[in-house]
Write a structure and sequence with these properties.
elongated; transferase activity; mainly beta; single chain; five-stranded antiparallel beta sheet; Alpha-Beta Plaits
């Protein structure tokens, strides 16, 4: 039987699309953290067939736009004294910076490394973004 202790003060990142948990876990640097954290994968879900969950026994700063980019269905629960005090629901951000890299070899971001990688939401329904500089398209869902 799986037993993951209660979070006293921290975060629970819930409703992560099954299989995307490790990507977020590593992006947050939790694999190198000195505090307790847990990645639980393929948990049965009522909304989706399966989901991943990340429990963090610490309050850390998170760029919520990145979480929304990876999966706009994610919910972040803030825990204080073992109780949920706030729920933050994600959505696709209008803009992401330095989350994905433009694949266009002619894009200025490929040659001028000081230029930030900026993508603007082009189509919310299709979850597509376009490079601010060269208009190359990228589909949301994977951070680099």
């Amino acid at each position: 039987m799986l037993n993951v202790d209660t979070i006293k003060n921290g975060l629970v990142i819930d409703h992560i699309k099954a299989g995307c948990g490790p990507q977020i876990f590593h992006w947050l640097g939790l694999d190198k953290a000195s505090f307790t954290s847990a990645l639980i994968m393929n948990v049965p879900s009522k909304k989706a067939e399966r989901k991943d969950i990340i429990k963090i026994d610490n309050i850390i700063n998170i760029d919520f736009s990145v979480l929304g980019f990876v999966d706009p269905n994610i919910c972040v629960n803030i825990i204080k004294d073992e109780k949920i005090v706030r729920k933050i629901r994600m959505e696709l951000p209008d803009r992401v910076e330095n989350v994905i890299k433009c694949k266009n070899p002619r894009c200025i971001t490929m040659t001028e490394h000081y230029v930030p990688q900026v993508f603007i939401l082009a189509d919310r329904k299709k979850a597509t973004y376009r490079c601010e500089y060269c208009d190359a398209f990228y589909t949301a869902g994977k951070i680099e």
